[in-house]
Amino acid sequence: MRITSGRPYGFLGKTAVFIFYILAAAGLLFSVSLFFTNYSFIARRPVSLLSPFFLASIFFLCLAALLSRGSFMETLSARTARRLNARLILSGMILALAVIIFLLSLTRYNSYSSNFDLAIYDQIIWNTAHGRPFISSIMGDYNSLGNHFEPVLLLLAPLYWIFPSVAVLFAVQALALASAMIPLYCISKRILQDRLLVFSVLAAYFLSRGIQGAGMFEFHTDCFLPLLVFYAYYFLIDGRRRGTVWMCLGMLLCKENSAFLIAGLGIFAFTRKESRRFGVFLIAGAVAFWIAVTKFLVPFFLGDGGTENYQYLAWLPFGPSLQDNWKVFLHNPLGFLALFFDKHRMVYYFQLLGPTGFLALFSPAHYALFLLPAWMFVLGSFGHLGLLNIMAQYSAHTVPAIFIAAISGLSFLRKKLSVKLPGHKERIVLILSLYTVFCAAGFYGKTSGHRISKFVKAGRENGAREISSALDKYIPKEASVTSTINLSAHLSHRQKLYLLEEMQADTNYPQWKNVRVSGAPLPENALISRQRYESDYIVAHKKFSGNDFADEIDRILKHRYVEVYRDNSGGLLIFKKSRNQILDPSLRSG
């Protein structure tokens, strides 16, 4: 159907168009505001209507597009898409997403809701900036390359010479995740060749729970993977193999298990006649790197505390070696495969594929690209169910691969529908675009503004200001400290920091009780257990320690610590190592 830009609508038609634009602008402004607040400061009940608002709006737009005999919706969408400046819109989306992710992570940190992962990375980078590369006392005073192979952390250390704060890490992480929209735009534009479809893919990425979750969940080097994966794939389909190689090398510097993503890229390249040799090269390189890191580099950096095998293999379902699991598979392949389709794993697949409308399933050529990293986490989830958390850093491996496959699936559907419904190309594009945004909004859940408001509220309830003031006043910068987990990231700019809670695998996740796990929980490093009660100060908080708080205080006092601070509620306690002297009782003021 031909669309003309100058078609007259008459007075009523122009009035309807004007009202539509006013309502659309108001709805857009309201929706954008929900990315930053849930209006809990003025509303009795927090407002979190983004997903329902989008679902209802898009439903009626789809209904209008399907039932309308005229071309009003098609004309409006086409004219709007043509008028938009793509670079301006892309820049705005990148800036908005970066700000949202930064605020999510920063408010979470300021509310004392962060976990020990942030403290570990913060201390590693701080130590590296001070001449002790990759050292973390939290993990037992050994080189962190023996835990994960992440040389990219070395590049972040100079930032701490200028501004030593976790806010720098949050900013870098937010920019990395948001700027991944640039290569995503290039891929979408090359494959889809339609601005409306391209914008719908960008909107889906913007609304991705996996991406925002990866940015909110502490700091991890995984956050660089979406940017690198998208660029690697774009260079691959554009015939620039050297660029692909450079991006793959960057991925390997971020984390060792990015080798699975590179192997997936290699398998995809092998399916294309013009790049089969290059595909073999990528697969061989990924396998060689994985073996070298897990068999030699990681055990080397672990030193005397090292193991013969990559320590995370202990999470496999049938023993800590690939050979053990391979034997089980050969003996009972159906039983082994059935493990991948229980309740927990099916929910994970649904959450992984649903936000892009399951479009990835329409692109078999890309199956290996997202199945290899996804199944890596599924296998490990038998020892660590948190690997299936769609709102954790692990999504940075799988979400970009899903988007790449979904773009190809979207292109496939458009071509098929255009052949079957000739003359309706623009309507098909409109419906597919709305479907993409519809699914992304439907799986988005509560808005980022709702989460930000919850963290702000949690900070007030936890007494964040009082905690920060007490830590600054009573704990010297150079002192060694043992801290409860939620406070650790605020004390990690020091050479010696330990956690008050024991760091044992499988003990912090009560939902694992019904999951079959091989062997007993991994024992804590004996050095950590001993040094926990040898530090200069110990900081405990009742709210973060739970029911073990009283027993923990007894253990602290038995190790010759004296209380030097207690807040008014008795929740925050600071202890100092006794040196055979009685401290002034006035130090116990709250």
Task: Offer a few descriptive terms.
590 residues, mainly alpha, 5-stranded mixed sheet, two-stranded antiparallel ribbon, 59% helix
Question: How would you describe this structure to a colleague?
Answer:
- The chain is mostly helical and 590 residues long.
- It folds into 3 domains: 78 residues, no CATH class; 213 residues, no CATH class; 126 residues, no CATH class.
- 59% of the residues lie in helices and 5% in strands.
- It is built from 27 helices and 7 strands.
- The strands form 2 sheets. It has a 5-stranded mixed beta sheet, sandwiched between helices. Strands 1-2 form a two-stranded antiparallel ribbon.
- α19 packs antiparallel against α20.
- The longest helix is centred in the middle third of the chain and has 27 residues.
- The protein is globular.
